Amino acid sequence: MIDILRNPLVIGLQTVAVLALFAAFSVEIVAQKIVDQTVATVSDGVRTEIITYSDLKWQLALQPNTPLDPPRPEDLNAATLRLIDQRIFALEAERLPRPAPDDNAINDEIAKTLKYFPSTAVFEERLKAVGFDSIKDEDFQRIIARRVAIDNYLDFRFRSFIVVTPEDEAKYYRESFAPDFRKKYPGVVVPTLEEKRKEINGILTEDRVALRIESFLDDMKRRVEIQILVNY
After folding, report:
1. What does the buried/exposed string (b/e) look like for 197-214 if buried means 16 or more CB atoms within 10 Å of the residue's CB?
2. What is the pLDDT of residues 115-126, one digit of tens each?
């Protein structure tokens, strides 16, 4: 799965796919408990995705050590940009319908998110602060289900076609891993390529996925209509 969308600490190209990949929220799925306003819209000419203030608060709730009451303007603006990217993925995912995530996939995603917080109670307090009852709240689970669906789309769209050859692994080991290891741990024997092959393969795969996602987003932002209505 794409870390981009999984990791709430970093929701950028490699950590959004995809840290994630990685919280796309639709305004219609939750009975609003927060006074709302439309912050931004993303349209492909057929469908329009709306980003509301409550969407931003839900996004921030998933990010450890991010203030919620009140949220910082810089965090709200950053969340707007993250959610725009996620809405683009959501629009594209609609073109390739796939089976909806099952309960196990949803629970696994929640469990991964909980690892970034001191306890379930702490996380649930953040959820309550943005309008949910608990991690069992049906509306919250629908949000996570959509997040998993987008993560699955990213895996299919970008990860499935990545090929890393043994030559690629050897070059990375020789030119990057080994020199960096020697600098960091002088005097320590450098692990062999075979010992680190799986790790290196993962690094190269994530780098290539990130480049593809970056290129995809750059292209899509020239095609879709994005309106940012509020800057904080």
Report:
1. beebbebbebebbbebbe
2. 999 999 999 999
H/E element, 227: strand 225-228
Rounded to whole angstroms, how far apart are CA atoms 175 and 73? 42
Q: What is the pLDDT of residues 54-86, one digit of tens each?
A: 999 999 999 999 999 899 999 999 999 999 999
d(CA 179, CA 119): 39
Q: Rounded to whole angstroms, how far apart are CA atoms 8 and 116?
A: 8
Q: For residue 193, count other CB atoms closer than 10 A to its CB.
A: 16
Q: What residues contact 114, with CB distance under 8 A and at least 6 apart? A: 120, 123, 135
Note the pLDDT tens digit of each residue in 124-168: 999 999 999 999 999 999 999 988 998 898 888 898 889 999 999
Identify the band that residue 35 occupies on the pLDDT scale cut at 50, 70 and 90: low
Domains of the chain: 3-162 (1.10.4030)
Degrees (nearest 5) of the Cα angle 154, 168, 6? 25
Residue found under tokens 């600098």: 183
What predicted TM-score, i.e. pTM, was given to this entire model?
Answer: 0.75
Amino acid in position 17? A
Helix/strand number for the chain, H first, E second: 9, 3
Name, in order, each residue with C-beta under 8 angstroms of 18's C-beta and a sequence gap of 6 or more: 2, 3, 4, 5, 6, 11, 12, 151, 154, 209, 210, 213
